[in-house]
């Protein structure tokens, strides 16, 4: 927020040149400067509160992941998957504090890894406050929660604990440094889905998932109620995940007027997120009806989440109508990925790799095709090289960004 300023000479020209008027003008300007400082402090407090509230919403997604995982597995494995979700948050908090945040955002550094703020040393800094750490920690444990669903029902507890700690403290922070730090070089990523993909490939399918001839034998989750509850909690949390990524709210965009600024872009982001998920859910509903001949609430929930995963990359830089297109295509990407998964005997109880890997990859391509120049310049002002639209965007950068997490 811009500071309010005045000078004694400004007031003198209005009040006259008498000596007593000069003193009054100086006094008024002194008070005016104090009020201006309070406005700046208030703006910082509002932005900090907005960021903390967004962090709380993203953290609430852990409950959504826990419910979704619990409902998607068989009853005998419920307690185990719930324990892994709790430990994702607990171990993630410790390891992200010790190493993760430093690897992700320690600056000055290089384009690969950060090297400052270990254990939040020298914190808070001119660049980061504690609220920012909390927000990024919530993102990191969300990535671990997504991965836990991919390898559910076949993982030794001790091995998973090591894996989760390593993912939150090292693997995910490196990727987030590439994409989100000031020293990074890429523009979007899908590390969580790819981590789940590799985990499920290494462990192989669950016993009984495919028969001795390779025919698919679905292992249905035990509670559709928990799946729906988890989906709605994730939907709620996504409003912190996407709109919250602006990090602040009190920022005016150029000369557009006091009615238009960051708060408008945040509202638009919430709308595009909603429309993409809604479009994907309905497309999945009718698409699966055509292909399978029945309605399935789990498929609809996964389609909804696939739409959210796809729009996340470009949620702030596309128009609402484009979000509907994004969700429509994301639903068919998810259906296609699930068909391929069955063909190649890939077993992911939550379809996490298909959702966050497949739909996430479409989201990156979608952003390169549909991003609007005006929105990109407003939101990423001062950061050149950001793509908007297929004719103007650096599509090769989006392509590289899509596949780098696959190998990492």
Automatic annotation (TrEMBL):
It comes from the Eukaryota. Residues 50-383 form the Ammonium transporter AmtB-like domain. It is a multi-pass membrane protein. Signal peptide: none annotated. GO terms for biological process: ammonium homeostasis. Its main location: membrane. It is found in: Cell membrane; Membrane. The keyword Transport applies. NCBIfam families: amt. PANTHER family: AMMONIUM TRANSPORTER. Belongs to the ammonia transporter channel (TC 1.A.11.2) family. This is Ammonium transporter. The lineage of its organism: Eukaryota, Viridiplantae, Streptophyta, Embryophyta, Tracheophyta.
């Amino acid at each position: 927020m811009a500071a309010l300023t005045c000078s004694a000479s400004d007031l003198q020209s209005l009040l006259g040149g008498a000596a007593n008027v000069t003193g009054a003008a100086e006094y008024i300007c002194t008070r005016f400067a104090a009020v201006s400082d309070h406005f700046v402090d208030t703006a910082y407090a509002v932005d900090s509160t907005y960021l903390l509230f967004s962090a709380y919403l993203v953290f609430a997604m852990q409950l959504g992941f826990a419910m979704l995982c619990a409902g998607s597995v068989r009853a005998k494995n419920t307690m185990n998957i719930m324990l892994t979700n709790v430990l994702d948050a607990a171990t993630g908090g410790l390891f992200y504090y010790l190493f993760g945040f430093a690897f992700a955002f320690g600056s000055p550094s290089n384009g690969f890894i950060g090297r400052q703020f270990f254990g939040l040393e020298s914190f808070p800094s001119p660049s980061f406050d504690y609220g920012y750490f909390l927000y990024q920690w919530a993102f990191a444990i969300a990535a671990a929660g997504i991965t836990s669903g991919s390898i559910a029902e076949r993982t030794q507890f001790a091995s998973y604990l090591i894996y989760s700690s390593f993912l939150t403290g090292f693997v995910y922070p490196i990727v987030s440094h590439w994409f989100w730090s000031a020293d990074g070089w890429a523009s979007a990523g899908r590390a969580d889905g790819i981590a789940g993909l590799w985990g499920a490939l290494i462990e192989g399918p669950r016993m009984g998932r495919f028969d001795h001839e390779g025919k698919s034998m679905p292992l249905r989750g035990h509670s559709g109620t928990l799946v729906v509850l988890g989906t709605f909690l994730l939907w709620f949390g996504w409003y912190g995940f996407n709109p919250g990524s602006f990090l602040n709210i009190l920022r005016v965009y150029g000369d557009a007027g006091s009615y238009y600024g960051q708060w408008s872009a945040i509202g638009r982001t919430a709308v595009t997120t909603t429309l993409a998920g809604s479009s994907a859910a309905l497309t999945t509903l009718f698409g699966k009806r055509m292909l399978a001949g029945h309605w399935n609430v789990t498929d609809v929930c996964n389609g909804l989440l696939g739409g959210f995963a796809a729009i996340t990359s470009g949620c702030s830089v596309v128009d609402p109508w484009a979000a509907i297109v994004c969700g429509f295509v994301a639903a068919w990407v998810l259906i296609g990925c699930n068909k391929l998964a069955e063909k190649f005997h890939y077993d992911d109880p939550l379809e996490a790799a298909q959702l966050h890997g497949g739909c996430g990859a479409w989201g990156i391509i979608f952003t390169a095709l549909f991003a609007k120049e005006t929105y990109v310049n407003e939101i990423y002002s001062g950061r050149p090289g950001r793509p908007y639209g297929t004719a103007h965007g650096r599509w090769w950068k989006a392509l590289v960004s899509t596949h780098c997490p696959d190998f990492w």
